[in-house]
Design goal:
Strand order of the largest sheet: 3-2-1-4-5
Shape: globular
Helix content: 25-40%
Strand content: 25-35%
Structural class: alpha/beta
Largest sheet: 5 strands, mixed
Number of helices: 6
Radius of gyration: 18 Å
CATH superfamily of the largest domain: Dinitrogenase iron-molybdenum cofactor biosynthesis domain
Number of domains: 2
Distance between the termini: 45 Å
Length: 203
């Protein structure tokens, strides 16, 4: 069965961020070769307000149709949230599609197990008092320990037992902004240095 992959690219044919003008190209692998099935231009970053942005993203979802794998240089915020809600597997890559389509397809078919076989050594939030907590995911992001930022942060966000959660990281995970938005939480981002970012999540 053929698998389709949708890629968001710029005018030069390289992946671009979904908040910039570009076009979606849907690729399909047939007889060992990737072929372009269809393409369409979109300008999500030019939307005036959340309502229009949702409308434009809905057009992207309709255009890619049954394709459930999407790739862009950066997929964050509302586009991430809406595409994930539509059942899409989201990947971030820099470069030309033909350089990474086989890799994405292979990894997507492998899948990522929800629960690992071995116990995880997850970072523990520090209680700062008054409902404020701090947790660092820098080691998770930098050392490739097999633990993901989602495994650390999602349980904390879904339990919601905090007034403010400070997240120390080397970059804000692209899914975090969408998750905060979905839960009507506020996310404030501070750049503390070239390799440290702090995100403050509050209700």
């Amino acid at each position: 069965m053929a698998k389709d992959i949708a890629v968001y690219v710029d005018e030069h044919g390289e992946t671009t961020a979904m908040n910039l003008p570009g076009k979606v190209i849907v690729y399909q692998k047939k007889q060992g070769q990737w072929q372009e099935l269809r393409e369409q231009e979109f300008a999500l970053g030019q939307a005036q307000g959340i309502r229009e942005l949702r409308t434009r993203i809905a057009k992207v979802v309709a255009f890619i149709a049954d394709c459930k794998i999407c790739v862009g240089r950066s997929i964050t915020g509302l586009p991430y949230f809406e595409l994930e809600k539509a059942g899409c597997s989201l990947w971030e890559f820099t470069g030309r599609p033909l350089d990474f389509l086989d890799f994405v397809l292979e990894k997507d078919e492998e899948g990522v197990p929800e629960q690992p076989d071995t116990p995880l050594n997850l970072p523990v939030p520090e209680d700062l008092g008054n409902g404020c907590f701090r947790v660092s995911i820098k080691e998770v992001q930098e050392n490739g320990t097999g633990v993901t930022s989602k495994q650390v942060l999602l349980p904390l966000l879904r339990q919601g037992r905090f007034h403010q959660l400070e997240v120390i990281c080397n970059h804000i995970p692209p899914w975090l902004e969408a998750e905060a938005m979905a839960k009507n939480m506020k996310l404030v981002i501070e750049q503390n240095g070239p390799r440290e970012v702090r995100g403050f999540i509050s209700k």
